[in-house]
Amino acid sequence: MEEYSFQRLNESHYNDLRKISLSAFGFDPGYEYYSEKNNTHFLGHSNLGYIAYSSKGEPAAFYGMYAYPVMSHGKRAVAAQSGDTMTHKDHMGKGLFTKLAKLTYELAAKEGVSFVFGFPNKNSYPGFVRKLNWTHRENLIEYRIPITTLPFLKVAKRFKFFEPLYKILSSAILKKYITIPSAYNSHFLSGRDSSHVERKPEFLQYKMKSGSVLLEISGKKVWIKLDGYMYLGDVESCEPDEFKGVIRELISLARLLGADKIIYTGSEADDVMAEIQVKLNRQESLAIGYLDFLQKDSPENMRFTQSDLDTF
Length: 312
Hints:
alpha+beta, 12-stranded mixed sheet, 312 residues, 12 strands, Aminopeptidase, 29% helix
């Protein structure tokens, strides 16, 4: 059996991650993607991951986590979200996923990271639950609001030659709504006895490097991302009538932007969604899972919004 070496992730490995990604997913996100995503120094933890190399020095697999600020019953802590786990197609079936994950968990616990959470899909779910002993508590729920409009956003996603023009047009439309990142409480999480990701300014700025934007609509912060559809990340805490007004204005904005769907995925929020009184489709989405390292910050009580997913 081929032998592998394992190294803690650092900046010199980012180009090798690009090679693994190209093999595993057929896509190279670029050096900047990994550089920005691992730049969580403001939380005291960065480059939480391990990369495997074959005996020939080939980058073979990677397991990574990204530090997140959390509030657990009024106390601040640092957790991490599992993300960008991948194995080169020439090195599948060698147990690298499990080995790299365990090394990363040992590193995280030693650095004081409280727990890891994530949203495994049906392909990765068995590995997390059966091999890494994750707890699967419940599933995210996806809510879709259909919009009657010409689907320019979907066209820009599908046909890359149209994307630069769409970015110019969408930026012009969104310009008057853009607001400066500042701390806020989530409407989807308010009034619930739960742990959650803290909306601190440094974290918002970090997340927005992935292409999301923070808007002010009807006097409330609204976090969205345009990527084929309009993804609603979060809304600032407000009264039910105010939330209804925010969503109705967001629907109007979606029409202008050529977004034929507004999609929100998070912890179950049927009561909140009932406030908007518009047609929507509801379905179960990804699993919510976690592994508790330090046994002190109640990951079982975590609730999430779309903005908490590492892909947002």
